[in-house]
Amino acid sequence: MSDAWVIPLLPVAGFVLLLLFSPWLPRKGDWLAIGLMAASFVLACLVAADLADAIGEAGVGSFAGISESREWFNVEGYIEIRMGTYVDQITVVMLFVVSFIALLVMIYSTGYMRGDRRYGWFYSIISLFTASMLTLVVADNLLLLYFAWELVGLCSMLLIGHYNDKQSAAEAAKKAFITTRVGDVGLLIGIIILFTQTGTFNIGEILRAAEEGEIAREWLTAAAVCVFAGAVGKSAQFPLHVWLPDAMEGPTPVSALIHAATMVVAGVYLVARMLPLFEVVRGMPELITALGLTTAVLSALMGLAQRDIKRVVAYSTLNSLGLMFVALGSGAVGAAMLYLFAHAFFKALLFLACGSVIHATEEQEVDKLGGLWSKMPITAPMFIVGALAMAGLIPLSGFWAKDEILVGIRHGHLNDIVAITVFATLPITSLYMVRLVMLTFFGEPKDQHVHEHAHESEASMSWPLMLLGALAAVAGFVVFEGVGEALGFHSGWLGFVYNLAEGPEEFHVNWGISILSVVLVSAGLVAGLWIWAGKAEPARRAAAFSPFLYRMFLNRFYIDEVYQAAVDYFVLAAGRVVAWFDRSIVNDTGVNGAGETAWYAGWLGKFAQTGKLPNYALAIVVGVIVMAIVAFGYRT
Amino acid sequence: MHSGYWMIATIAIPLFTAAILVCVPDSRRDVVRWISAGVGAALFAISMYIFFAYEVDKGEGYQFFIRWDWLENVGFLKDHGISLAFGVDGIAAPMVLLTGVVAFGGTLISWKIEHHNKDFFVLFWVLVSGVYGTFQSLDLFFFFFWYEVAVLPMYLLIAVWGSSSVFPTFARTKEYSAMKLTIMLVAASILIFLGIFAAFHEAGLGTFDLQRLYEPGTFDEDFQKLVFPLFVIGCGVLAGLWPFHTWSPDGHVAAPTAVSMLHAGVLMKLGAFGIIRLGIQLLPEGAAFWMPGLMVLATTNVVYGAFAATAQRDFKYMIGYSSVSHMGYVLMGLATMNVIGINGAVLQMFSHGIMTALFFAMVGAIYDQAHTRDMALFKGLANKMPLFTFFFGVAGLASLGLPGLSGFVAEFNVFVGTFRTYPWAGALGIFAAAMTAVYILRMMSMSFFGPFNERWADLKDMTRLEMATGVLLLSFLLFMGLWPAPFIDRISESVIALPGVT
Q: Which of A22, A126, A135, A198 has a C-alpha 20 to 30 A away from that of B298?
């Protein structure tokens, strides 16, 4: 257990070695990165097993996690910063998800990225990303968490901009970094407020202080809102969701790893970790729910109209993230983490399947695809499994996870409107997933050239797909106590991962909710099959029915445009004003003005030097008289 | 051997080098280069020694302390209580290291100077010796003396080896920039000079010995309040204090690469160092009274510099304004008057020094080939010059406070310190750090990414010497970013001992 710090260290070694030596290594050193990642994965599993034993000894509910830290720097009596690891149930879930998906993505990339100009660099940065993400989830203090938080953001930016000779990729990378950085400003302020109030960065101690009311109420509120802002940025929640769809400019394995399975759920992880603090702040759970709900609804609508297959999947990611935040807002940590767990599999599956399609066709517009079912006998069914799991069809993993969230909302302290809205998004989610499947794999090929050249991807890409497909289908069963226990989750998933403030829960099925959700999802699926079957005539009619709505969905409610205008006309314009002010007013008027004044004084002074003797004589006489008067006055 | 000789060596070696170089024939450029590089390496080694041999937990006071007795026997000096006294505390130790690193990097990057390189290096070494002298002086008179020695060679270095720039809306000649820089800094020196003599007179001890003047009760409160602004503004001008900062962007743009490195990297730190030595240590009650005012100016620095940087098209102007912003963090940390904040300020002095030096070294590397620094003219350099992009990018990331590099450690301490006393200023500071991301990434996506502009097909990636400079500076960015304890242990010990710091 005390070896948890080694888990991120292995990929760090991969990063350093590849950064320095990859040009000279065989295969640019991808085997080295994969080997170290595999070792890290095994170690993560061992740590999970250790934890299971420790929980077995202590008993569920009284187990407090295991932490270990060492000093980073220390100013006796003023500030002490320790860096360390904290392992509990949430940590091991994250460790497993991150290291497993990273390993699969690295293997998949040997095929997908082959021949890339910066192959070694790609593996090096993927290793750094994984290391940072693993650090993020094992961190026992907020400063180390922030450290890793920024590094995953950096790697995300570098990988989005991997194809750096594309202007759109460079712009997307910039947008992703700066948008999340807006949230990070909040996170850093929040962390510093918490430190100022409690004198520590240790998460456990901060949570204890918050629960015991040791932090002044107004500061606690400010800190909670600020920390949450960080989560909103990283997890692409409304209003900072705009970067995620653009992030699809990156290579597809990157989208699967960073922008689906791991980094974007860092916000969910952070909120889950800090939930006891958020829950003591009045209005905070409601805020979390409201933003999650807004994101889920907006993204479901926007996903309906997008034409790029990766972007549709990206909107579905926003949709899922929104759902996880709703769950957190209602205090259902176990449900949120279950969704995160299942989501990692089916969303990584969807992205990697997208990647397989893109690799095979070099095309990612649905307008040019179609009829690929027969050409891609592995990718197509795997994609469909992923899509149905995302839609939440029983008995795939998405169903169980979503069902737990619905139960959580129902049992939480939230308004019925939340539950109704979430139910309303279910058929929309299944609609756009079916649309994607129909347009990509069925119907007439829209571009014969593309269709002819399509082929199934090689083994290094299809094996990870099949593995993920299987997991996406069955991962949800961990919710049953028997299955969970067999896998090492004591008392099943919900008894294992629980809200620290409220204690372990028990799994129970709410038949009403389950049946309703199955009906809604199936209705969406059937409607989708009808709308996009054949030549998709009903879809065209629906788009023509309200061009305004269609344009709004397609253009993502123009939110990106509004932000761009705000940046152009406020931020950059302010920069130009300041720069002008500095040059014209401060420098040319102030500084040069002072110089010119001195010159002018000299110019005036020169008129005293007339060169005529009478003038000087007069001056002497006046001078003597003045001095005499002064001297006389001084004496008396 | 007395350990203080190492300090004397850092001051004497550059001076002797300058004298020896004067005797080298003009045409023997390689001799000049090799001597300079050798001396740079030696100074770097001595600086490393001084930094690491500085003993933590040895108790208060100055280490390596040395006072040259024979000077006291010279009538003039004795009569006026002037002595050549040197010593290093935990604040000066990192500054000495910084000087060694940046000066060594500067000699390597100046290898390619062809135009009168002998004269260039003569002035360069005089400047370096002045910097070492200021950081290590414990005598008020010689503090000022070395300070001026460091500032004045700048005029010739910029006016002779610099470059003028013409923009669509305005032009800046190197002569203008050099003159403005020198006049503003000398005008500021007059304030310091006044302050020094006022302090000497008021103390009435007949000595310039700083350690005796530091004794509590030497100056009464009214005097401190009166004189403190002289020191803060006088030194502040060199530290880029708003609104007296305009020499800095223009000066850095006009200066040749190594001079920009040394000036932004080390000389601006002399200003901040002066605020500590002359302001906080000499006049603690004055500091307590005036620091809220400095906080306002420092916050302006931070935000104003960041905004102005977003509008620049010239690499060096952007870095120049970013220096104004980052030096604002130093002043902000000093203005907190608490241990964490001032620790952060000193860390930031070191971090900014290394980072800006790296920035300017890289800009010089491209300017020497392309003869322009207009970001908008470049496009997609990343694939043509991957190493160059890597180092430039790392400097940018250090600048925007990425954890793992030195900027984060420094800024983080400044923010924590500032939050203690002025939460609004701390929040604005963190906001400005996000603005830093805006202008750094704007520059990166403008010049380094996107489709390659074929106009630059002849550009070559970094030379070996540029690589060496880059690796040298990068290793210190990482050192402080990953393992700050050696710095913080040294700095905090002396900061805690500062009077009036809570």
A: A198
pTM for the whole thing? 0.91
CB of B64 closer than 8 Å to CB of B5: no
A583 touching chain B per CB within 8 A: yes
* Contact assignment for A151 to B403 by CB distance below 8 Å: yes
pLDDT tens per residue, range B92-119: 999 999 999 999 998 988 888 888 888 8
Judge whether A578 is closer than 8 Å to chain B, CB to CB: yes
A578/B484 CB distance under 8 A = no
Supply B148's token pair.
């001026």
CB A143 within 8 A of CB A132: no
Which residues of chain A make contact with B415, given a CB cutoff of 8 A? 188, 192
Cα–Cα nearest to A168, from A249, A56, A53, A78: A249
Strand partners for B209: B139
In angstroms, the CA A525 to CA A433 distance is 8
Check A165 against B489: CB less than 8 A apart: no
Give the pLDDT score at B79.
Answer: 61
Mutate to test the interface with B, among A16, A75, A178 (most CBs of B within 10 A): A75
Inter-chain residue contact A578 with B307, CB threshold 8 Å:
yes
Report how far apart the first and last C-alpha atoms of chain A are (Å, whole number): 94
Single-letter residue type at A251: P
Q: How many whole angstroms from its chain centre is CA A344?
A: 13
Measure CA B299 to chain center. Answer: 19
Q: Which residues of A touch B449 (CB under 8 A)?
A: 161, 164-165, 167, 169-170, 173
Distance from CA of A86 to the nearest CA of B (A): 20
Burial class (CB in 10 A: 0-12, 13-18, 19+), A489: buried
- The token duo for A537 is 């005539």
CA angle A548–A552–A558, rounded 5-degree value: 135
- Helix axis angle for A284-305 and A266-279, nearest 10°, is 150
Query: What contacts A600, CB < 8 A, 6 or more positions away?
Result: none
Q: Where are the alpha helices (DSSP H) in A475-572?
A: 481-486, 492-496, 511-532, 537-545, 547-554, 559-566
Q: Indicate yes or no: CB of B449 within 8 angstroms of CB of A576.
A: no
Tell me, what's the ipTM?
0.90
The nearest CA of chain A is from the CA of B270 a distance in Å of 22
> From the list A165, A196, A575, which residue is nearest B311 (CB)?
A575
**pLDDT tens track for B189-228:** 999 999 988 888 888 777 788 888 888 878 888 888 899 9
pLDDT for residue A61: 67
CA of A180: which chain B residue's CA is closest? B434
Which residues of chain A, if any, have pLDDT below 50?
Answer: none
Contacts of A193 (CB under 8 A, 6+ apart): A219, A222, A223, A226, B419, B423
